[in-house]
Design a protein that fits this description.
With 106 residues, the chain is of the alpha+beta class. The chain has three helices and four strands; from the N terminus they run βαββααβ. It has one domain: Dimeric alpha+beta barrel (Alpha-Beta Plaits, 2-Layer Sandwich), CATH 3.30.70. A hairpin with a 6-residue loop joins strand 2 and strand 3.
């Protein structure tokens, strides 16, 4: 199955420094949603990216195609809220994956 990078863009450049109570609740729902997707085996990693240019979210998903990746992101509570969050979806045509083992300590 192909991999896709789903980049969640926040509703404004100052997010999450000025997150509202409503947005905080949405982010909790967002985390619960993506944990379920991960538990089903479709999301490999999901979390915030502390980019100096502005925080954004990442989900690396393993699904059949871009339409399936889009279907996952469209059901994210932050998207369903209509509060200005949006996803960019990018295919990852090749990936090197670690085998089921613990990483070596650095």
């Amino acid at each position: 199955m192909p991999f896709h990078l789903c980049r969640l863009l926040p509703p404004r450049p100052t997010f999450p420094a000025d997150i509202t109570a409503e947005e905080a609740g949405l982010m909790q729902e967002h985390a619960v949603y993506w944990q379920r997707v991960a538990d089903r085996g479709n999301a490999l990693i999901v979390g915030p990216v502390l980019d100096p240019a502005g925080v954004w979210g990442v989900a690396i998903v393993e699904v059949s195609d871009a339409a399936a990746a889009s279907a996952l992101t469209e059901q994210d509570p932050v998207i369903l809220s209509g509060r200005g969050f949006r996803y960019e979806i990018h295919p990852i045509p090749q990936a090197i994956l670690r085998k089921n083992q613990q990483p070596d300590p650095l």
